[in-house]
Specification:
Length: about 100
């Protein structure tokens, strides 16, 4: 089962919990990634601490890379097995754009 870094309250690093999450099959225009690397950066610290408050509970982390596991309807730019990356404008588990990574 996949995991996510979740906060249920604002505070220090101790409020970050590594929890199992249930995922649905990707919907129209969505892809499911097996994330191989994720970024945790300064904006995540602000969100975790409450400087930039989030609706709780919330997943944190706004960028990552991985391999496409499955795709929903109307996904044309990536296929299962592609290595991709994403950067989001808002925290949570659903990026709006996925970028194919170049090899080499």
């Amino acid at each position: 089962m996949p995991n996510s870094i979740v906060i249920n309250e604002h505070g220090g690093p101790e409020v970050m919990k590594w929890v199992e999450i249930a995922l649905q099959n990707p919907g129209r225009g969505e892809v499911l990634l097996n994330q191989t690397k994720v970024g945790l950066n300064f904006i995540d610290i602000y969100q975790r601490s409450g400087v930039y408050p989030l609706d709780l509970p919330s997943s944190i982390g706004m960028e990552g890379v991985g391999v496409v596991e499955s795709i929903g309807e109307n996904v044309e730019n990536v296929k299962v097995g592609d290595r991709v990356g994403y950067v989001m404008g808002t925290p949570g588990p659903i990026p709006k754009v996925v970028y194919t990574l170049l090899t080499g």
